From TrEMBL:
Region annotated Disordered, chain positions: 180-212
Native source organism of the sequence: Paenibacillus ottowii
A Pfam family it matches: DUF772
Residues of the Transposase InsH N-terminal domain: 16-112
Protein's name in the database: IS1182 family transposase
Biased composition (Basic and acidic residues): 192-210
Length: 453
C-alpha cells in the first residue's frame, strides 16, 4: 500500500537545533577550541557606539565569512542560501531555526566600506596563529616557504602594454658597500658614484584587474595571476605567514622581509628553513647566513651553451683568488662590476694554443672570463647544507608540508581561482583561506588530544 509523506511537511514539531547537529561535526570542534572573542575587540573602533541602526554582531558576520572559506562556497549569495537550509551552519552562527539569516550584501558592504584600507583580515590571521602558539602547535624553529599561482578573475586577452619602473632592490645599499670593499681589497679604485636609476620594463596590464600580473613561467599556465607566498611551520604544518603579490613578482623578492616579520610578530627563534629553487639567489643566501639560519634551497639547473664547459669545471682557489680551468691554467682577477660580480680572465696567449679552447670559449680574442659574486660564499654554504644528511632530510619534508597546504587550499577551500578582483580582495581571500585551514587543523588535533588524554 502506497502512503504519501506530503502531510508530514505541514506538521509542527518541537525540536532543539542542538540535538540536530552531530556531536562529531567539524563546526562543533571549531566552536569549542577556537576563541572568537577577539573579533569584537578588533572591530569595535569601527562601529559607532550611540548612533545609527543596530549592527549585526561582528562575530556572526566573520563566522559567516569563515563558513564560506571552510566549505569553498565562492558566492556570498550562495552562502546566504546555504546557511538558510543547513542546520550546522545555523548552530555555528547561533541562529535558531526561524531566525533570519543576515543578507549577503552585508558582507560585501562591510568589505567595501568599513573594512577597507585596514588590517582586520591580517589581524584575524595573526590571532589564530597566536592561539596555535598558545596550544604549543607552532614551534617557530623550522619554516618552509613557497608560492603558488592563483588565477585572477581577468581575461588574458584583454590587456594594455605599459612601461613601468622596476623597483631598486632593498639590498642595493649593502651590495654597494660590499663592491666598494671588494675593489679596495683588490687594489682597485672605487667606482664613480652615481644615483641608482630604476630601469623601465614593458609589461601587460589587465583591463579588468590591473592589480594582477601577467605570469610566464616554464611548466606553468600563462595569463594573469596572483602569487600566494606562504610559510608553514614544520611542527604541525600550520601556516604562519601569507603574502600576496602580482603573478609577475619573483618569489625571492618579499622573502626576507616576510621572514623578519614572523620573527618580530610571533617571537620565532628560527633555526632552519627549506625553500624551493626559486629562492636560490645570492642576496637570500647572504641574508639567511647573516641571520644564522640553516638554509636548504633546492638546486637550480643552469644550462651552459652547448659544447662548452659548465662553470663548475673551473676550480676556485679562495686563498689565491684565482680560477683554474680544466687545462690547469689560471684565470686571474680583473675587476668587480657594479652588480657585485668579480671577473676572472685567462691569458689569451696561453689559451689560443690550448687543445680544449673550442670547449672553453668562443670569444674572438681567445680569452675566457668567469664571474663570481662577492657573496658567492653564502651560496656555496647553502649548497653544502643541501647536500648534508640533515639538509636532505629537511628538504624531503617540503612536499609533506607546504605542498600539501597548497593542495588542501585549492581542492577543499576554493583557492584555485580568485573570487574577487583587486589585490586587497585577493589578500583577504588568501588570509581567510589560511586562517580556516589553521582553525580546522587546530580543532581536529585538540579534539583528538582531549579524547586520548
Amino acid at each position: 500500500m502506497l502512503r504519501s509523506n506530503r502531510e508530514k511537511q505541514q506538521s509542527y514539531e518541537f525540536v532543539s537545533i542542538e540535538d540536530l547537529v552531530p556531536q562529531d561535526h567539524l563546526l562543533r570542534k571549531v566552536d569549542k577550541y577556537i576563541d572568537f572573542s577577539f573579533i569584537d575587540d578588533k572591530v569595535r573602533p569601527l562601529y559607532c557606539a550611540d548612533n545609527g541602526r543596530p549592527a549585526i554582531d561582528p562575530t556572526v558576520l566573520f563566522k559567516m565569512i569563515f563558513l564560506g572559506y571552510f566549505y569553498g562556497i565562492r558566492s556570498e549569495r550562495q552562502l546566504e542560501r546555504e546557511i538558510q537550509t543547513n542546520l550546522a551552519y545555523r548552530w555555528f552562527l547561533g541562529l535558531g531555526l526561524t531566525d533570519k539569516v543576515p543578507d549577503h550584501t552585508t558582507i560585501s558592504w562591510n568589505r567595501r566600506t568599513r573594512f577597507k584600507d585596514i588590517t582586520i583580515f591580517q589581524d584575524i590571521f595573526d590571532e589564530i596563529v597566536l592561539q596555535a602558539i598558545s596550544h604549543r602547535m607552532v614551534g617557530g624553529r623550522v619554516l618552509v616557504t613557497d608560492s603558488t599561482h592563483v588565477k585572477a578573475n581577468a581575461n588574458r586577452h584583454q590587456y594594455t602594454k605599459e612601461q613601468v619602473l622596476q623597483n631598486t632592490k632593498d639590498y642595493m645599499g649593502e651590495l654597494n658597500e660590499a663592491v666598494k670593499d671588494d675593489r679596495k681589497n683588490h687594489g682597485k679604485k672605487p667606482l664613480k658614484s652615481r644615483e641608482e636609476v630604476n630601469e623601465e620594463k614593458e609589461i601587460k596590464v589587465s583591463k579588468t584587474d590591473p592589480d594582477s600580473g601577467y605570469m610566464i613561467r616554464d611548466g606553468k599556465p600563462e595569463g594573469f595571476f596572483y602569487l600566494d607566498h606562504r610559510t608553514v611551520d614544520m611542527k604541525y604544518n600550520l601556516i604562519t605567514d601569507v603574502h600576496v603579490t602580482p603573478g609577475n613578482v619573483h618569489d625571492s623578492v618579499p622573502y626576507l622581509s616576510r621572514l623578519d616579520r614572523q620573527r618580530e610578530r610571533f617571537g620565532f627563534q628560527v633555526e632552519a628553513v627549506a625553500l624551493d629553487s626559486g629562492y636560490l639567489t645570492t642576496p637570500i643566501c647572504r641574508g639567511l647566513q647573516n641571520r644564522k639560519i640553516f638554509a636548504v634551497i633546492a638546486h637550480r639547473r643552469f644550462h651552459p651553451r652547448q659544447g662548452l664547459f659548465p662553470k663548475w669545471k673551473f676550480e676556485y682557489d679562495a686563498k689565491r683568488s684565482v680560477y683554474r680551468c680544466p687545462a690547469q691554467q689560471e684565470l686571474h682577477y680583473r675587476t668587480t662590476d657594479r652588480k657585485g660580480y668579480r671577473q676572472y680572465a685567462s691569458d689569451p696567449a696561453q689559451c689560443q694554443h690550448c687543445p680544449l679552447l673550442s670547449q672553453c670559449t668562443q670569444s674572438r680574442n681567445h680569452r675566457k672570463v668567469v664571474t663570481r659574486h662577492v657573496w658567492e660564499d653564502s651560496k656555496e654554504w647553502v649548497r653544502s647544507n643541501r647536500l648534508s644528511p640533515s639538509g636532505k632530510k629537511l628538504y624531503r619534508k617540503r612536499k609533506e608540508t607546504i605542498e600539501r597546504s597548497f593542495a588542501d587550499a585549492k581542492e577543499l577551500h576554493g583557492f584555485r581561482y580568485c573570487r574577487l578582483r583587486g589585490l586587497p580582495n585577493v589578500r583577504e581571500q588568501s588570509l581567510m583561506t589560511a586562517a580556516v585551514q589553521n582553525m580546522k587543523k587546530m580543532a581536529i588535533h585538540l579534539d583528538r588530544q582531549e579524547k586520548q588524554g
